[in-house]
Amino acid sequence: MMTALAQQPLPAHVPAELAMALPLFSRQVIYDNPQEVLIPAMHAELPPITYVTNIFPGDQPGWLLTKAEDVQAMLRDADNFTKNGMGKWAQNIGENWLVIPTEADPPIHTSYRKALNSHFAPQKMFAMKEQVRERARTLIHAFQDRGECDFIAEFSEKFPIFIVLDLLGLPQERMAQFLIWEKEMLHSNDWEVRGNAVRCVKNYLLEEIEARRQHPRDDYISKILTFEVEGRLWNDDEVLGHCFNLYIGGLDTVTSLLGNIFNYLASHPDKQNELRSDPSLIVLAVEEFLRAFAPVTAFRIATKVIEIHGQKIMPGEYVAFSSPVIGRDPAFYEDPQAVRFDRKAPHMSLGSGIHKCLGMHLARLELQIAVEEFVAALPEFRIKDGFKVPYFVGNILHVPDLHLQW
């Protein structure tokens, strides 16, 4: 039985047969690969819309859409689905700033993106290519002659963080502390732990922002202080909200994706060797990896009574977009469990509509370079003998520990 029925009293408009807790959101470590076991079972057994009692951190309820077409429609409908305060980051500590631009709605969202897009444009990110490659090579060089590595601790946790800290002008030597805060914010089910980490990050960012106000530097935080919206400079909450967005977005998603991707490559030497023998496949392979191994479940909040597949959703209720589930929708993708480098299928793993991921060009660059450098520097690698791969199931599906050998 893959689902447990909900125990708590349900709202009047929620039919009992649609309410359940799902193992995919249980926020614990399991040893069955969720992409191979839980997600296909969900597509086989669940209706297109389900009331999932443990979908939001803290085991809070919301609606899960399992069909890619329904999710696409929701992501393009900013009138009926808001992102305002969606992550409950500020609310959790009794404040009301928004994560910018992620939690903003039109029309101000449009103005924020106008100020931001040019800073994350493909050519800007491409200009960082050699810097990103150098970071990857330095990390790989430290273990390539050893014949084994602790992939998460020695590569995938550090690599994206190096890049984001470079971009923001934050000190690399604080990385260990940043990692602790990030884990407490993004992987804990305990709202007190999350709240304490939010406070720490907020206070730290405010210090850095103030330092730039006093002594501007040639870094991104200094640039944010010059951004305008609606004919005025961004206010203090907006500057903080944007720095916070880059902190949580830049420190975790690529790390989680890399763990999922390299677990797959280590288990499929034929796929590794395909990329090794023809590195020109890597750009398309990364798009397929984004479809198949997307880690994040994100949310919208209904602004009015909405009906989907005959089911009423009430204002204020959460509706989930689970990219790992959508990326394997058999109604949308032919043979979704197969990882095919020539698929060229669209995916929503970097979002869709107005909230498409601001850092998508940087994320793609990081993933492409990580794969390129690994297959170039190392012979065929595999999961270390005797190592059992753990999978963390929750709002960010990831491999918390991965040992490779070659």
Automatic annotation (TrEMBL):
Name the UniProt record assigns to this protein: Cytochrome
A single MF term (Gene Ontology): monooxygenase activity
A Pfam family that the UniProt record links to this protein: p450
Sequence similarity: Belongs to the cytochrome P450 family.
SUPFAM superfamilies xrefs: Cytochrome P450 (SSF48264)
Record InterPro entries: Cyt_P450, Cyt_P450_B, Cyt_P450_sf
